[in-house]
């Protein structure tokens, strides 16, 4: 399995926002969606504010592949689900969201730090 380089982790993890384009059934990339991204250890995560019913999240279910761009890094990735029952990991992800995006206020951060969004957490796996 491919892993992120330290430079990639830093660039993407420090980026304010990330663009994600998932692949359709025919392999063509959908239009990119801009979202927040967080780094926990050597992994990168995003969450859907609308939970599993969110349009972009549903698009990631088709092929579980896509392309991301953030911090000057563009990469083809696989989308790996994060177990909603892994409370320790979700608490770490919550904390990074709260710390990184604190200036947006608790109400906005609450959009990605809640049970519905936790259920729609994706880990990016580099495809090389």
UniProtKB/TrEMBL annotation:
The protein, known as: DUF2255 family protein
Higher taxonomy: Bacteria, Bacillati, Actinomycetota, Actinomycetes, Streptosporangiales
């Amino acid at each position: 399995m491919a892993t992120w380089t330290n430079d990639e982790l830093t660039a993407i993890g420090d980026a304010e926002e990330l663009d994600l384009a998932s692949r359709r059934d025919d392999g063509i990339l959908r239009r990119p969606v801009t979202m927040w991204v967080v780094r926990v250890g050597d992994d990168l995560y995003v969450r859907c504010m609308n939970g599993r019913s969110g349009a972009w999240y549903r698009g990631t279910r088709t092929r579980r592949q896509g392309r991301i761009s953030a911090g000057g890094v563009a990469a083809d990735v696989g989308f790996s689900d994060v177990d909603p029952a892994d409370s320790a990991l979700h608490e770490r992800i919550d904390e990074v969201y709260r710390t990184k995006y604190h200036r947006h206020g608790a109400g906005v951060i609450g959009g990605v730090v809640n049970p519905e969004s936790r259920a729609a957490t994706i880990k990016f796996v580099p495809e090389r």
